[in-house]
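Hi X.,

You mentioned you wanted examples for the new student's onboarding notes, showing what a folding record looks like when two proteins sit in one file. Here is a clean example. The first protein comes first, with its sequence line followed by its structure tokens.
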Amino acid sequence: MKRFMPVVLLMVSLAGIGSAQTSMTPAMQNAPSRKSSLTEYAGPWISVFHGHTWFSIRLVKQGTQLTGTIQIPAGFTFDNSGDLKSVSDDRSTYALDNVTLETDYLLLRATNPRTRQTDSYIMQLTSANTAEIKMDSIPMSPEMPQPKPWKLNRVGPMAIAPVH
């Protein structure tokens, strides 16, 4: 009996460990992804091309919403693989009209005050201080390659001058 008890305890322990190690059930695999919070997106973000900031976003949390600005060059081109090829030196800064938090991304909309054209961007976190953004409403001809998302890095609060 003394030898039997340790064997039983060992078997019960192993069974408990084995059941804890099982894979996710189908219901768990189909569960919706975790929704990011607005706070995770708040702050200044930049994208660098050839060592220089060419694109920036400043997102400010105000209550239950994000507001902010986006600064983008007046012109930019892509190569045949969809990578950024060139950017113009002149930049325009627009206020964000609408920022919507979706399940796993942020939808940003900004209207160019000159042309009254609204541009949409999809921003998705890749880590606490990195993200990817792509234009959602870019008019492209069918033969042009689809632009790849641009890499964003969160920077310090003074890295982007506030717009007044």
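Then the second protein repeats the pattern, sequence line and then tokens:
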Amino acid sequence: MSTRAIQFLKQKKILFEVVKYDHEEKGAAFASRASGFPLERTVKTLVVMEESILKFEEILINAGQRGTMLLMAPEDIEKAVIVKVACIAK
């Protein structure tokens, strides 16, 4: 199984681990419960990074396919793509 996100990260030689879960419901809260990973470290979008995630050693981020997340260091996301870091969460 490969997604465009996975292919992109492999091309950039960025480390990640694929985490699969049974997708029964949309959203980060369900993905967090299903994967057993803390909600505050679960990012269910490929578009929006929140500056508070940078304090964590690893986060789960959407891999571009339902039921598939990537466990990776948030600073590697900054290395892989052009980002603007901002506080957007309430």
